């Protein structure tokens, strides 16, 4: 199923070998490295996930990626984001491969990123709230799941998701959206990096592999 090929939340085993070293530096295991094919190394800090002709309500998300201390902006970190279309699917039914709506960004000197896309829909089963997945890595940051962007007011949000988001404090991943001119939904999603990397199954490595 398409759901099983795309993690619904931050997941995986932590790599003991990817511990914090020194002043904000990381060691990387081979398992947490991105391969050379992904386009994140030369990605912009701002861009699009969905094209201007993609059906759906336009949405703009901006944010800052921080080091594990939650204070230091993390520059030059690749942020890979992907989500469903308005049909709730990552790709047309019956097709395999990476999600159709995905893009790579690279934080600027102040750790910032921004993207424009469409507001995703929940999976067709109606069991999980609509969301945007994020993965992050760099030459010094082990590949890891970022917090999954969820949207305040979604009736499919669970009590566990609300509790987990609240526990993140200022990095809460259930975020309010406001509707601006032109009907564009706008929101902010700040992300705090973890000092360790995550395990990515073969069907969730599409960002790392290109």
From TrEMBL:
Source organism superkingdom: Bacteria
Q: Which Pfam families match?
A: Dioxygenase_C
Q: Which Gene3D superfamilies match?
A: Aromatic compound dioxygenase (2.60.130.10)
Q: Which residues cross the membrane?
A: none
Q: Does the keyword Nucleotide-binding apply?
A: no
Query: What's in the keyword line of the UniProt record?
Result: Dioxygenase, Oxidoreductase
Q: Which PROSITE patterns match?
A: TAT
Q: Any idea where the Intradiol ring-cleavage dioxygenases domain is?
A: 53-165
> What family, per the record?
Belongs to the intradiol ring-cleavage dioxygenase family.
Q: What is this protein called?
A: Intradiol ring-cleavage dioxygenases domain-containing protein
Species name for this entry?
Answer: Nannocystis radixulma
Species classification: Bacteria, Pseudomonadati, Myxococcota, Polyangia, Nannocystales
């Amino acid at each position: 199923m398409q759901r099983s090929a795309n993690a619904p939340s931050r997941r995986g085993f932590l790599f003991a070998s990817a511990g914090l070293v020194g002043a904000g530096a990381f060691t990387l295991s081979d398992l947490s490295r991105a391969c050379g094919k992904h386009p994140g190394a030369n990605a912009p800090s701002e861009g699009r996930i969905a094209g201007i002709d993609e059906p759906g309500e336009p949405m703009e998300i901006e944010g800052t990626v921080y080091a594990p201390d939650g204070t230091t902006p993390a520059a030059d970190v690749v942020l890979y984001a992907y989500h469903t279309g308005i049909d709730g699917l990552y790709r047309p039914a019956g097709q395999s491969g990476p999600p159709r709506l995905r893009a790579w960004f690279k934080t600027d000197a102040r750790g910032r990123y921004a993207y424009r896309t469409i507001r995703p829909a929940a999976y067709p089963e109606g069991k999980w709230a609509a969301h945007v997945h994020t993965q992050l890595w760099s030459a010094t940051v082990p590949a890891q799941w970022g917090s999954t962007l969820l949207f305040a007011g979604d009736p499919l949000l669970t009590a566990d998701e609300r509790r987990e988001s609240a526990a993140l404090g200022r990095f809460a991943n259930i975020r309010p959206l406001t509707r601006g001119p032109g009907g564009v939904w706008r929101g902010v999603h700040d992300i705090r990096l973890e000092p360790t990397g995550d395990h990515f199954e073969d069907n969730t490595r599409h960002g790392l592999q290109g």
